[in-house]
Structure prediction request, 1272 residues.
Amino acid sequence: MLIGTLSTHHQATGVPLSWYLALSGAMFLLGLLGVLIRRNPLLLLLAVELMLNASNIALVGFSRYWNVSDGQIFALVVMVVAAAEVVIGLGLIVAVYRQRLALDVDALSRLKG
Amino acid sequence: MPWLTIIIVIPLLAALAMFIVPEGDVGTARLVAALGAGLTLVMSVLMLANFHRDFPGPQFVDHAGWATQVGLDWIVWVDGISIWLIMLTTGLFAIAVAYLCFRTPDRPRAFLALIMLAEMGLLGLFSSGNLVLFYVFWELMLVPFYFMIGMWGGAGRKLASIKFVIYTMVGSLLMLVSIVATAVIAHGITGVYTFDIVALRNVDYTRPESIWLLAGFLLAFVIKLPLWPFHGWLPDAYRESPIVVVALLAAVVSKAGVYGLLRIGLPLFPRGMAYFQYPIILLALVSIVYGSLVAWRQPTMRMLVGYSSLAHLGFIALGIAAIDPQAAQGAVLQMVNHGVVVVAAFAIVGIIATRTGKEDIDDIGGLAARAPWLSGIFLVVTMASLAIPGSNSFAGEFFILSGTFRHDWWAAAIAMIGVVYASVYMLRLYQSSMNGPARGGDPRRVELRVRDVVVLVPLIAVMLFIALWPQVLAGASSASVNAAVAPAQVAVGRPPSEIRSVVLPNPLPATVSSASGVTGGASQ
Amino acid sequence: MLITTLAWIVLGLPLAGALLLSLWPGEPDRNLSRVIGVGTVALGFVLTTIVFFDLLSRTPSHRHATNALWQWINVDGLHIDLAVLVDPLSVMMMLIITGVGSLIVWYSTEYMAEDRDYRRFFAEMNFFVFSMLLLVLAANFFFLIVGWAFVGLASYLLIGYYYEKPSAVAAAKKAFVINVIGDAGLVLAAFLIAKTFGSLDYAQVFATAPTRLGGGSFTAEMICLLLFVGCAAKSAQIPLHTWLPDAMEGPTPVSALIHAATMVTAGVYLVVRCNVLFHLAPYASDYVAITGAVTLLVAASIAIVQEDIKRVLAWSTVSQIGYMMVAAGLGLYSQAMFHLLMHAFFKALLFLTAGVVIHALSGEQSLNRMGGLHRLLKFASFAMLIGCLAISGIPPFSGFFSKDEILSTAMAAGPLGVVCAVAGIIGAAMTAFYMFRMYFRAFGGPQREGGYHPHPHMSGLAMAIPVGVLAVLATIGGFLQVPWGRQLVTDWLAPAIPDQSSVEASATVEWLTSLASVSVAAVAIGIAWWLFGAGPERRLKYAHTLAGLRHVLLEQWLFDDAYESVIIQPGRDLGDAAIRTAEPDLTQGIVTAAAGFSMAGARGLHRVQGGLVRTYAFALIAGAAIVGLVVVLAR
Prediction:
């Protein structure tokens, strides 16, 4: 509601779109790097969370730029999904920990083909 | 009233209800299954009572938008062809549940739940009004059968279930490709993106398109039927499955393949069917002769009946490939007949096998002396199975072959070999088990009991009814059959037969989002 | 209206009897089985006579009526009713079926008295009578086929009546399968008829056939040939005749009713019924006549060497039906029907008398263990003598008139007719020979060595009266139709047979033919008496002359062996070969190929799944990057 009333035109004054995208891209790359080089599942989850939020920023930015609220709604959906994902991910990590296995994703490769 | 949705959902609810039945409470599990199958049967009978005989198009349309933009909807309906398959399914599943109620399998809850799921899958398949639903139900019904074969089967059940599922799935993968391609190409021609079977009938595919699209479907259909030489899954599945599952596979699941030819092949791809007409006729003829010969030489009762099914389905496929309304009408009639007869045959095989503990034909003999009722009913079933004139099966085969004869007399003549061999192998089954010197334990124990009678008598009653008055089935399906065959008749250059048309509102405007059309035939 | 209603009742009665007897809970009282079994057929006969007199009171052109019970099916223009046709031909057959039938069923009440499955016998007999009535009453080809197959089923059940006996079971199966081959021919004929005429109704087919087909058209020939396949199988004509002798495994009354008097003559009935079609098909008709002539000679020759009293009669039935087929093929339809009627009388008489003998000897059927029975079974001997004289065509017994009429008219029916007539005269000699061979070996000569234990007992009234009635009919039946006199059968059938051949034998030919056939028969009887009338020494002396021919005859011209080695065994081998090779190699091969294909794919792909999540992630990102790059570059 609040965001929707801020502006009615996509060329309104304020933070330009490119700033949003730059922030989003930087965060996404950070997250990606985390996913690729980290081995601790907890940190992996964190990195994924970072990527999701990066996309959220992009969504909100575009939403404001085009002045339609779809992107904001979608960002809310992403948040819900992210929360669900964290719940499951943490659950898995706790389960792995209970099995007294090393918290190292490279070691958890029993499902390989 | 959304008749069909209710009919499809009842077995699903019954299957789900099995979860809340306490483990080990066999009585309640039976009750739930009996209620599920019984209610479904009652509903389908009521639906039949309201069915409009002369209308060739969809009736009892239940339509709910889902992803309408991409042509995906929940749309179910029946016409004069599928109503009989629905009746066959509900009737035979009710009988299967009755059989199971008296002979509880291991883990009855799970087994009965799977039976209910299978019923749901088949009912959905026979009533689905768009290709995606068709595909979903086509694959869905495999799942319960996989578990039923794999968990309740004989010694080689693992291999049998995997072979059955993988092989049929290989066929249907191409079907999925074809389904998507059908809609995409139709979009290119008409500008409407739809999977709706009725809407797709009006799409004028070019000949190569029609051929290639049909080819994808065809593999799935001939494997499911099965036609020679695609019956590779059949021997293992029939040998290893519980007898109820074998009966349902032969009686109902195999009809899915035929139904596909009739519902999708002929009306949607008439040019393709014209192209594949003689290959299918050829495979059907080989199935008839080959199935008969192999059935004759089988050592066990169940495999004999199983291979006889291969021959009988060859007849049905021949009736459709003949592209003649008479033959197609015979095929529809024969689908019902074969379902009823083959279930009765397997039920008798099951009764003999469980009571004597033997399945080899040579180990059993002379049962008639002490089991006259069993012998009498078996005789009726034998005669129906070998399609003696005057039986219900003869009515179907007569019109299949008569229609075939009109254009391809040689095909009808070759198929006659199968008719003669049917008497050879069915009499081998009947005589060596019932007649001759007594073998195979105490024949008194084999005599029919109440639990057998409740299964067999309804089947015999249906056989007699159809034998005496097939016009009931034929009259209510001829309009739809003619409508289904007409495009293919044009494609092979024959005049289409007249379609008895009744003025009813076209129930399916191209873009409807709420249920409309003919929802109760008689109410219009 | 009345007569069709009566026809439905006549048809329904034995069906009701069969259903009642087979569904009766528990074991019904024997008297009840008897009353239902005989009552339904006898009542049917009474009602049929009413129908007969009703028709008789009408002018000949109005002697027909059809009535449909309900529309059985209507598929794409092919309309089939469950309907009956009452006309002179069907009424004549009905009279034979219910008349001779009730005598035989009555006879069986005593003959089968010792049997433990009393009610099953009568249920199956009633079912047979129903089926046979359906066959002759049907108003269209479809229900003709239904009746045709049902009599086959009834015959199967009754041949295999003693189902513990493997030979009976095998004989039943053989009869059934050969009849199914016949049915297949008939069904194909029906397809061709439906395709040509768009209908299976007799009335419509026969009315439009002359204009639509024209004489000698290929379609007409094909229809008739296919119909004749059915006739040959049912009426045991070469090459589909091998089942009938084996069918003697059934109880003797069954042989009398089904395998002599009624069912096996259904083929003749069908040819006569389709006289319009056969008239349009000269070649097919010739084929019918030739088949009949060949069959009558072959069957008669085999009958000469049979040792089983019932098998002698069975082969004589095949041979006599050959005469009927000759007549029907030459267009002498009413003569064929006349012989059919006479044959029903004398052959039923012969079988029932043979049954009396078998009954008296507690089941003995071999001529080798008979002899000198004349003094012990006077009544049977007398009845058998009448039957033998009738079948041998000795005047004034019935067979003389019917056989002679066929032979003399055939003489006038062109060159083929002459050939057939000559064959018929030779056949007449053989007939007289083998019949009296049987008679003298059973009743003449000295008693068998060691005498009879227990002493042969005369049958009771239930068996004697039917035999007596049939003996009277076989004696005087021929006077229905005498040369230059009243032609009752021909006149009666005239409305149903528009295409009766109009040839008439001249008086000279008639006399000469009669003289020839009677004198050769008399000579043959004389030889039979000389050879078999005394003790076995004389015939044993000649038993080894012509050993080769005798072997062929004993092996029944090797038809069975030929079928076994040419058709049946190759079929078995083919089935076994399919199981051995095609099943594992071809059908499983396709499965294995499908499985192998997916296995190979899986093997290739499984290397990518190393289990390192970061590899997957990298692959994902790399893939996304490449797609992104492509999208950007492609712009």
